[in-house]
Amino acid sequence: MRVTTTVAEPFSPEKAVVPLAAGGNLSRAQDFFPVHALVVDDEPLIRWSVAESLVGLGFVVEQAPDAATALKMVTTATLPYDVVVLDLRLPDMQDLSLLGTVRQLLPRAVLVLMTAFGTHTIEADARALGATVLTKPFELADLNRIVLEHTSGQD
């Protein structure tokens, strides 16, 4: 039997490899842990498109097709979600209840409400909960810009 021994070089900060989030700096926790995102929409193609767009930013993304699944995921997640992108109209919730509950459970999360049925009142109420409202249809580049603007300054 042959035994091999590996001798490690002393630590050198110049040689250290540290994964950085897009546009990040070393002082942020997200530089070491990817942004954790949840996408909630009952339309599979929209949910997939949004999720893939966020994955392209280096985020770890999970998906939920309805409010009940989303709430279960939020309350049982090992790491809290940094970003939640959700649709206004879901099969089991047609108002801002899910948004309000998520805001209570994740007070520091970036919230983005997607809707094709937004009224001035709904949009104002969503903004009062700290959400950004995107009217469907929207460009994924706009979603990416909003999410990056809001996550780049988080500690």
List the main descriptive attributes of the protein structure presented here.
single chain, 155 residues, alpha/beta, Rossmann fold, 5 helices, disordered N terminus
Can you tell me about this structure?
The protein is of the alpha/beta class. It has one domain: Rossmann fold, CATH 3.40.50. Helix content is 34%, strand content 17%. It is built from five helices and five strands; from the N terminus they run βαβαβαβαβα. The protein has helices spanning 44-56, 67-76, 97-105, 120-128, 140-151, and strands at 36-40, 60-64, 83-87, 110-115, 131-135. A five-stranded parallel sheet has the order 2-1-3-4-5, with helices on both faces. Strand 4, helix 4 (120-128) and strand 5 form a beta-alpha-beta unit. Helix 1 (44-56) crosses helix 5 and helix 2 packs parallel to helix 3. The N and C termini lie far apart (51 Å). Residues 1-30 have low confidence and may be disordered.
